[in-house]
Amino acid sequence: MTTVIHTENAPAAIGPYVQAVDLGGMIFTSGQIPVNPQTGEIPTDIVQQARQSLNNVKAIIEQAGLSVGDIVKTTVFVKDLNDFAAVNAEYEAFFREHEHPNFPARSCVEVARLPKDVGIEIEAIAVRT
User: Fold this and answer.
1) Active site includes 108?
2) Measured between alpha carbons, how far is 87 from 47 in angstroms, rounded to an integer?
3) Could you please report the per-residue DSSP string of 50-94?
4) Residue 77, SS3 per DSSP
5) One of 95, 108, 111, 123 is an active-site residue; which one?
6) Would you list the domain boundaries of the chain?
7) pLDDT at 1 > cutoff 90
8) Rounded distance, CA 125 to CA 29, Å?
């Protein structure tokens, strides 16, 4: 059975999709861009954008009753791979702060353009154990 996950603590979908789906044992989030769900603002700095995207993923995972430590895979889309070092450092800090037992598996790819012309989008898969 598939359950749709929705939280006001992450941006609402801006198209025909949901924030996440819960398959019982696995949660798949849609890509999260760095929109602050309370203000609608987007940070200009790529490090702040990375943190906001990760916080949005976290809010969705928590709505499903899981934690950051349950994330097993992420995909990071960046508009400029020259930002990789800065994004990577913020990504590492985020998962360390949330005491992830390991780092999740990850793919990181450069893309030509992202919604709202942001610099980053992050999606995640979490597992309920």
Assistant:
1) yes
2) 6
3) HHHHHHHHHHHHHHTT--GGGEEEEEEEES-GGGHHHHHHHHHHH
4) strand
5) 108
6) 3-127
7) no
8) 6
CA-wise closest residue to 46 among 77, 86, 93, 76:
86
pLDDT digits (tens, 9 = 90+) for 66-122: 999 999 999 999 999 999 999 999 999 999 999 988 999 999 999 999 999 999 999
User: What are the phi and psi torsion angles at 60 (to 5°)?
Assistant: -70, -45
* Strand boundaries in 59-104, DSSP class E: 71-78
**CA–CA separation, 32 and 26 (whole Å):** 18
Which overall architecture, per CATH, does domain 3-127 show? 2-Layer Sandwich (3.30)
SS3 call for 31:
coil
